[in-house]
Amino acid sequence: MKNETEYENEDKKNQENKEEKAQKHSVIDDIQGIIIGSLTAAFGIAIFSHMNFLIGGTAGAAFLTQYTTDFTFGQVFFVINIPFYVLAIKKLGWDFTIKTFIAVSGVSFLTEFIPRIFEFGEINPWFAAVFGGFLIGSGLLMLFRHKASLGGLNILSIYVQEYFQISAGKFQMVADTLIILCAFFVVDWRALAFSVLAAVSLNVILAINHKPGRYRGMS
């Protein structure tokens, strides 16, 4: 027969399962979350593009390609993410992969579209770095909470957090900083310094708000 402790543990587990079901995102929740998250991140990316800043991950590689070739950020960002969908399918499932593909496609399109409807003038670089980083971090946070990402290192960071309980924000902060340092010969030192500040601002949002076990409202 079960003792009192076993009954308490069983009741607690049942209650947690009920809460998780109650908090599960609906399809409408996911749609609005992915749209708003993609738009928020894309606006931050558009600011960085205007300022010749960059960030880490696949987005950083897309920025570097944009600054050294005739290709645009959106074009490179869409193509460079394709190989990572294989890892996403194998390790994180079709649901995550499809949502991520939609988010990446949305950001690729929006980063091309936003400058056509929103003209950027002179922006203080300190503000651009911090605010742009906050925008991208907030956009990523929305996508993470709806089981999506912006591909590349985002996929790896979610995988590492999911299976190794390492904070996605901390993992990506280290990776992003290393990638930005590789850009030393592509952008001037001022833009590089502001890019480091931008990466810190971005990942502060994730490190504080996206920790294992904190959020259960996932579909």
UniProtKB/TrEMBL annotation:
Which terms are listed as keywords in the entry? Cell membrane, Membrane, Transmembrane, Transmembrane helix
Q: Which residues cross the membrane?
A: 31-51, 71-89, 96-114, 126-144, 164-186, 192-209
Q: What is this protein called?
A: YitT family protein
Could you tell me where this protein is found in the cell?
Answer: Cell membrane
Q: Per its UniProt entry, which superkingdom is the organism in?
A: Bacteria
Does Iron show up as a keyword for this record?
A: no
Membrane-protein topology: Multi-pass membrane protein
Task: Identify the stretch(es) annotated as Disordered.
Answer: 1-24
